[in-house]
Amino acid sequence: MEVVVIDYDSGNLRSVEKALAHVGAPAVVSRDPARVRDAAAVVLPGQGEFGECLRKLEAFGLAQVVRDRILQGAPFLGICVGYQLLFDESEENGPVPGLGVLRGRVVRFPHPDPGASERRKVPHMGWNRLRKVRETPVLAGVADGAHVYFVHSYYPVPEDPDVVVTTTEYGVEFASAVARGNLFACQFHPEKSQRVGLALLRGFWENVVDSAGK
């Protein structure tokens, strides 16, 4: 039972692989479409520019494979840009169409009001708090109010509020994680979020992937 971390020249692939291995998941990094089709679970990390990430995913023949696996109900974890790519489009250098798995669009953090007492820098970089909107198996070991690590200038705005499982405040309150069926995706980086991140990855492996395989 293999967890495939998709290699499309974007993201902290080896750190994601190592973090998954730390919680007992048999993770491998691969860009082989056949291997992704056969995987027990798929992880799509990512960092960088939305459109370029999507072009690479398509160039390696992986975009449709990712869509298919999600529609088939395979356990799926999206991280950072791997979360953003799930939506209809991004305004980053766009609009640029996304994978369209989830309805909604990706927008940039607004520029702070010149008269604001607190000026927030973009990108949003560093530790910030999660507010749990609802419980989900992936977050079973993560407390409400836990801190995780972010690096991003854009964030998704889901059309369906029912998919949102955590929000985070940074000038605006945004959807920092979503879940639907066996899909879980987050704007923050579990592989950089130390104990909390490992608890999330353990929840994904034990409560979603392992359960789906039984």
Protein described:
- The protein is built from 6 helices and 14 strands.
- The chain has 214 residues and is α/β, with parallel strands linked by helices.
- It has a single domain (3-213), classed as Rossmann fold (3-Layer(aba) Sandwich), CATH 3.40.50.880.
- The mean pLDDT is 94.
> How many helices does DSSP assign?
6
Q: Which CATH first-tier class would you pick?
A: Alpha Beta
In CATH, the homologous superfamily goes by the name Class I glutamine amidotransferase (GATase) domain
Unreliable stretches, pLDDT < 50, 5 or more residues? none
Structural class given helices, strands, pairing?
A: alpha/beta
Number of domains: 1
The span between the termini is 11 Å
Strand content: 25-35%
Which assembly state applies to the chains in this document?
A: single chain
CATH topology, anyone?
Answer: Rossmann fold
The helix content is 25-40%
Rounded mean pLDDT is: 94
Largest sheet: 8 strands, mixed
Shape: globular
* Strand line-up across the major sheet: 2-1-3-4-14-13-12-9
Number of strands: 14
Question: What attributes characterize this protein structure?
Answer:
214 residues, alpha/beta, 14 strands, 32% strand
